[in-house]
Write a structure and sequence with these properties.
Blueprint (H helix, E strand, L loop, with lengths): L1 H9 L4 H16 L2 E2 L4 E2 L3 E6 L5 E3 L4 E3 L2 E6 L3 E4 L4 E3 L2 E5 L4 E4 L4 E2 L4 E4 L3 E3 L4 E2 L4 E3 L1 E3 L12 E3 L2 E3 L4 E2 L4 E3 L2 E3 L4 E2 L4 E2 L2 E3 L3 E4 L4 E5 L2
Parallel strand pairs: 1-4, 2-5, 3-6, 4-7, 5-8, 6-9, 7-10, 8-11, 9-12, 10-13, 11-14, 12-15, 13-18, 14-19, 15-20, 18-21, 19-22, 20-23, 21-24, 22-25
Antiparallel strand pairs: 16-17, 25-26
């Protein structure tokens, strides 16, 4: 990408529009469904072991760097209209999981979404950098290698207008209703969190509500 970045600098970023048009054509050639006005300032990495058509990118989606899309089995990745994604994010959907990012949600750099079962992110959410959403966990029974043990699963759901500050991790079975706010580097574990809750800590606990 050094040459692409040089051309973008030389053309005051206008090069990225040509680049985006070319990348869109390549993604469609793979079978990925992609909408209008797609914009990307990087190179997508693809590891498609399911159906390419199970990866859907809506209209007006902008990606500001390299991004990693992976699916296997019947995993679906759906990026809805108006989503913005910063650099070096990873989206993984396996088994029968749906990984859905709702309309106009913004995602900071170095964020990871691992969907062994559904991860559903609502509309107008703000997810800062280095966010991890992980809907599966390895077994850890003594006497057997961890990597050989079965996973356990739990859906993750974020409502609309949720803000996760930098470095937040959300694990299996967590449901954050509309308007929740999670403080930086907090760990949100399995549970149901009421609308407009403000959560902090490891594990995250409600300290008050938005007013």
């Amino acid at each position: 990408m050094p040459m692409a970045k040089f051309l973008a600098l030389l053309t005051n970023k206008r090069y990225w529009y040509l680049h985006s048009w070319l990348i869109k054509g390549v993604l469609r050639a793979y079978g990925i469904r992609i909408g209008r006005r797609f914009y990307i300032e990087g190179m997508p990495k693809l590891r498609i072991r399911g159906k390419a058509s199970d990866i859907v990118i809506g209209d007006n989606v902008s990606i500001f760097g390299d991004t990693d899309f992976r699916n296997r089995e019947s995993g679906k990745i759906i990026i809805e209209d108006g989503v913005t994604i910063d650099n070096d994010c990873r989206f993984v959907a396996a088994n029968q999981a749906t990984l859905r990012i709702g309309e106009r949600t913004s995602i900071g750099p170095f964020s990871i979404f691992n969907a062994g079962v559904d991860i559903l992110v609502g509309k107008d959410c703000m997810l800062a950098g280095s966010i991890v959403l992980q809907s599966s966990e390895h077994g850890i029974v003594k006497g057997q290698r961890i990597r050989e043990q079965a996973h356990s699963y739990g859906e993750i759901k974020l409502g609309d207008d949720v803000w996760l500050a930098a470095g937040v991790t959300v694990t299996k079975g967590a449901v954050l209703e509309d308007g929740c706010v999670v403080g930086a580097k907090s760990l949100v574990r399995k549970g149901h969190y009421e609308p407009n809750s403000i959560l902090v800590g490891i594990p995250a606990r409600k300290i008050r509500e938005r007013v």
